[in-house]
């Protein structure tokens, strides 16, 4: 990140910046015990860090390598920066979620391309403890119930 004020940041990057700020503030308080930070700033930092660190947030388990990998794998789809950012932040797990993220999705992509994107997302931004399975290629006419089952995440024993 070159200029923190002019970039579209993923939740992972925001979490990293806030953790870094928190550590710097703690170091400053150690060297200057009388130093105070605005209470509302500390509250906001704490709440955002808690939210983005929760198990429900994809940013809590992402790594820079995963983000770089997903971006490289999604290059061929000509997604906008904001679409890629939303994919990273939301980690869609089914076609419906992906269609909500991609503008004019039905006009821009065929169902096979969307299935492939979901598979890429599931493998490059995995949910810890869950495995991604791809549907057999012969099933092209999926109804809504089968579409929702495209990625199956059984719990590993």
UniProtKB/TrEMBL annotation:
Keywords noted in UniProt: DNA-directed RNA polymerase, Nucleus, Transcription
UniProt cross-references to InterPro entries, sorted A to Z: HRDC-like_sf, RNA_pol_Rpb4/RPC9_core, Rpb4/RPC9, Rpb4/RPC9_sf, RPC9
PANTHER family in UniProt: CALCITONIN GENE-RELATED PEPTIDE-RECEPTOR COMPONENT PROTEIN, DNA-DIRECTED RNA POLYMERASE III SUBUNIT RPC9
SMART domains with a match to the protein in the record: RPOL4c (SM00657)
Stored SUPFAM superfamilies: HRDC-like
GO cellular component: RNA polymerase III complex
Gene Ontology MF, one: nucleotide binding
Gene3D superfamilies linked to this entry: 1.20.1250.40
Name of this protein: DNA-directed RNA polymerase III subunit RPC9
Residue ranges of every copy of the RNA polymerase Rpb4/RPC9 core domain listed in the record: 2-128
Main subcellular localisation: nucleus
Pfam families: RNA_pol_Rpb4 (PF03874)
Compartment annotation: Nucleus
Family membership: Belongs to the eukaryotic RPC9 RNA polymerase subunit family.
Keyword Acyltransferase belongs to the record: no
GO biological process: transcription initiation at RNA polymerase III promoter
């Amino acid at each position: 990140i070159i200029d923190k004020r002019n970039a579209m940041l993923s939740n992972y990057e925001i979490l990293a910046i806030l953790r870094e700020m928190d550590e710097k503030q703690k170091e400053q308080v150690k060297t200057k015990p009388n130093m105070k930070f605005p209470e509302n700033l500390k509250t906001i930092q704490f709440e955002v860090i808690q939210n983005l660190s929760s198990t429900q947030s994809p940013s809590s388990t992402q790594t820079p390598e995963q983000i770089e990998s997903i971006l490289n794998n999604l290059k061929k789809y000509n997604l906008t920066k904001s679409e890629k950012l939303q994919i990273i932040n939301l980690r869609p797990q089914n076609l419906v979620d992906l269609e909500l993220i991609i503008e004019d999705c039905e006009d821009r992509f065929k169902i096979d391309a969307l299935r492939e994107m979901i598979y890429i997302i599931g493998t490059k931004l995995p949910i810890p403890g869950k495995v991604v399975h791809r549907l057999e290629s012969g099933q092209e006419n999926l109804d809504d119930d089968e579409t929702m089952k495209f990625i199956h995440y059984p719990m590993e024993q």
